[in-house]
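Tokens for chain A. Residues wanted.
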């Protein structure tokens, strides 16, 4: 597994270098969603093809999950779940907060994950039972309380189509804000969840099913020592309607707040 993890990291670094070289120096001037999508596809599609080629060569027997917004994860077999440019909005906005991600799923659970953020020089790696590393060094959450927590949240793609998640996203933000110094959205979900594992963020929560974006960070956060659950405290699964990752000392405090939403 370590050999596969190292090879996966090399593949993501190759794709990240390609994308970093092509990222616009200024925000893309797109006035419609179609224009923004066309500008993104022009760089993302070649990168996605390269990523699929590299990962398929590493694990030819594994299937491939193409739809980055997929809500269903196969329950059997091995599958690659990858995103060449996780953080399209930031990428097109000439911001550094985007990443290349890859997760190997086995029977519906992540067993290997890499999140590589070229612009911030951060590479997170983990295997099931093997811990999490940031740039090659073991990492762990930082002890905090809600009163000193660096909090983050986000929303799944197309959250407006899920009225329950949309309502909970707004209500939870209003509920959490009085208890923490600030709440931020720092880009890709996978990267923010991984940052809980390294202590750069204290907690992250989200409402709405979003397995494609949450699976890599869920493994990275849990293997680092963070507590991962849904907003009610039950074990998180790809089908769960909510997600929480937090440092151990903060997790229970956060759930007390979210349970009232």
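Reply:
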């Amino acid at each position: 597994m370590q050999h596969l993890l190292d090879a996966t990291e090399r593949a993501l670094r190759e794709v990240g270098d390609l994308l970093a070289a092509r990222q616009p120096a200024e925000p893309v001037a797109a006035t419609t969603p179609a224009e923004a999508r066309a500008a993104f596809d022009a760089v993302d599609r070649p990168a996605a093809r390269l990523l699929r080629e590299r990962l398929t060569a590493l694990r030819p027997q594994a299937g491939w999950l193409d739809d980055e917004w997929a809500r269903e994860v196969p329950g059997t077999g091995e599958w690659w779940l990858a995103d060449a440019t996780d953080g399209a909005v930031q990428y097109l906005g000439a911001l550094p907060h985007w990443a290349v991600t890859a997760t190997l799923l086995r029977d519906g659970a992540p067993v290997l994950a890499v999140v590589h953020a070229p612009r911030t020089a951060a590479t997170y790696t983990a295997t099931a039972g093997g811990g999490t590393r940031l740039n090659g060094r073991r990492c762990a959450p930082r002890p905090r309380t809600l009163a000193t927590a660096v909090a983050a949240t986000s929303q799944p793609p197309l959250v407006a189509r899920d009225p329950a998640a949309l309502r909970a996203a707004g209500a939870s933000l209003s509920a959490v804000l009085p208890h923490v110094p600030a709440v931020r959205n720092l880009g890709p979900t996978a990267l923010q969840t991984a940052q809980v594992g390294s202590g750069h963020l204290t907690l992250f929560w989200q409402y709405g099913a979003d397995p494609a974006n949450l699976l890599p960070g869920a493994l990275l956060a849990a293997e680092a020592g963070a507590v991962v659950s849904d907003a009610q405290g039950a074990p998180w699964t790809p089908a769960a309607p909510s997600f929480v990752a937090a440092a151990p000392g903060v997790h229970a405090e956060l759930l007390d707040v979210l349970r009232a939403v």
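The helical segments are 2-22, 33-58, 88-92, 163-176, 189-198, 211-224, 248-258. The CA atoms of residues 116 and 130 lie 18 Å apart.
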